[in-house]
């Protein structure tokens, strides 16, 4: 009697990787879209506030301190750093 070796198909090993990759890409895309939306909302809000008078007041308030707008935790405004 000859014993036949049964091999498992390859797709069960690849399927979890594909599912995880697709889910991770979806989550990253969603989070990025939400952050961009919030950033645009904040930009609109602060564009109404920014004026030469408010910038001068801000300069006086933070004189001698590190500019908080360039803080690494303020990642929503990275696109506006000059």
Helices and strands, with pairings:
Elements: H1 11-49, H2 52-61
Helicity range = 55-70%
Distance between the termini: 78 Å
The total strand number stands at 0
Nearest-integer average pLDDT: 81
> Which consecutive residue ranges, at least 5 long each, have pLDDT under 50?
none
Shape: rod-shaped
Q: For the CA atoms, what is the radius of gyration?
A: 26 Å
How is the biggest beta sheet arranged? none
Order of helices and strands: HH
In short:
The chain has helices spanning 11-49, 52-61. It is an all-alpha fold and 82 residues long.
What does this structure look like?
With 82 residues, this protein is mainly alpha-helical. The protein contains two helices and no strands. The protein has helices at 11-49, 52-61. The radius of gyration is 26 Å and the shape is rod-shaped. The relative contact order is 0.07.
């Amino acid at each position: 009697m000859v014993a036949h070796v049964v091999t498992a198909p390859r797709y069960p090993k690849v399927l979890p990787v594909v599912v995880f990759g697709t889910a991770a890409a979806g989550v990253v895309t969603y989070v990025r879209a939400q952050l961009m939306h919030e950033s645009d909302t904040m930009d609109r809000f602060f564009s109404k506030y920014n004026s030469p008078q408010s910038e001068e007041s801000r300069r006086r308030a933070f004189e001698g301190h590190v500019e908080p707008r360039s803080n690494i935790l303020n990642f929503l405004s990275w696109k506006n750093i000059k």
